[in-house]
């Protein structure tokens, strides 16, 4: 087995450069900025690269895959394919991640479907987020973070660049659908007799549709004045 290489650090003009040989023995070079900052960056890059080359030469599967990193579009497909969640959750993620692959306007402009995941930059993600729909930006950015967290867990990336971009949650706007109990009762009056109490019951308990649709008679404890939410109705099925 060939001995481990050390690589070299030097200058090309006033810029720092790192030189090394890849796992096939082919000479490689990368140039960095000037000054102390450029030297520090070049040194860190060289040390990291030499470790990766050595790992690939030894057949390490993670290192081999890192050498041929997926595009963000490929990573999204891989993540969704292994993500264990309800079908409606997957559909929501797919819709949000379209803004990642197709761009903030869903017009294939500014998206990263064909960009290798190690080419994502802090500045690029920040500019992308500013162009997202205002009310949806928080959830869309959160979906990108979710996918890149997976890349970190799979050891494809050392860190998640999307977490370095602020993602403030929008202030919730209170929506008052009804101003009085009389208005709720008026809605109930338009329903068949067995459903007339429903608007009042739903509004005063705050139950979501998927919760009250799945209620059974045994879920109502009249003596204690309690409603037990034990299951939900989603995707045409009742689930615990």
Looking at this protein, list some descriptive labels.
240 residues, DNA polymerase, domain 1, two-stranded antiparallel sheet, elongated
What is this structure, in a nutshell?
With 240 residues, the chain is α+β, with helices and mostly antiparallel strands. 43% of the residues lie in helices and 11% in strands.
Model description:
By secondary structure, this protein is an alpha+beta fold. It folds into three domains: 8-62, no CATH class; 72-164, Orthogonal Bundle (DNA polymerase, domain 1); 181-239, no CATH class. It has nine helices and seven strands; from the N terminus they run E-E-E-H-H-H-H-H-H-H-H-H-E-E-E-E. It has helices at residues 35-57, 61-67, 72-82, 87-102, 122-130, 137-153, 181-189, 198-205, 209-212; strands spanning 8-12, 15-21, 27-31, 220-221, 226-227, 232-234, 237-239. The strands form three sheets. The chain has a three-stranded antiparallel beta sheet, covered by helices on one side. A two-stranded antiparallel ribbon has the order 4-5. Strand 6 (232-234) and strand 7 (237-239) form a beta hairpin. The longest helix has 23 residues, at 35-57. It starts with 7 loop residues before the first strand and ends with a strand.
């Amino acid at each position: 087995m060939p001995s481990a290489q050390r690589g070299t650090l030097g200058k090309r003009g006033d810029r720092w450069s790192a030189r090394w040989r890849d796992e096939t023995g082919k000479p490689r070079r990368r140039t960095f900025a000037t000054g102390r900052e450029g030297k520090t960056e070049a040194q860190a890059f060289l040390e990291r690269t030499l470790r990766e080359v050595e790992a690939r030469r030894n057949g390490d599967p993670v290192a081999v895959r890192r050498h041929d990193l997926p595009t963000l579009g490929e990573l999204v497909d891989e993540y969704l394919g292994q993500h264990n969640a309800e079908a409606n959750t997957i559909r929501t993620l797919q819709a949000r991640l379209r803004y990642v692959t197709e761009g903030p306007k869903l017009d294939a402009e500014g998206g990263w479907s064909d960009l290798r995941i190690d080419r994502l930059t802090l500045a690029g993600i920040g500019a992308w987020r500013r162009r997202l729909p205002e009310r949806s930006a928080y959830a869309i950015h959160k979906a990108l973070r979710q996918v890149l967290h997976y890349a970190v867990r799979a050891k494809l990336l050392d860190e998640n660049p999307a977490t370095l971009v602020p993602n403030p949650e929008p202030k919730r706007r209170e929506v008052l659908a009804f101003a009085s109990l009389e208005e709720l009762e008026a809605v109930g009056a338009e329903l068949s007799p067995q459903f007339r109490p429903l608007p009042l019951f739903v509004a005063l308990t705050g139950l979501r549709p998927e919760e009250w649709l799945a209620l059974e008679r045994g879920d109502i404890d009249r003596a204690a004045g309690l409603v037990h939410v034990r299951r939900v109705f989603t995707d045409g099925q009742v689930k615990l």
